[in-house]
Amino acid sequence: MMKKDAVIINTGRGALIDSKALVHALKHGHIGGIGMDVYEEESKYFFSDWSTDIMTDDVLARLLTFPNVIITGHQAFLTTNALKNLADTTLENIRAFAAGEELVNEVK
Fold this sequence. Notes:
By secondary structure, the chain is of the alpha/beta class. 35% of the residues lie in helices and 10% in strands.
């Protein structure tokens, strides 16, 4: 239902977009392009240096070949507010732990 020159921007969750269907849509001109800051299997590839290794994810490798695709390494969350919230939560967890209080943000 979108125009064929529509550009999709995904900074939410990688799994919001079916990557195989995205490759198909790009190959056949059904969309104009995509900007992605997230990818379904990003934990394996983002924040790592793959310049000397072989990428085994064929879908991601194919996406990287399109001139109308921009993929960044999950940087959208690096806002001043997000980083302040991370620091505040971390410091509160440290304070609560040191005081012997219940850890409300404990990961189990």
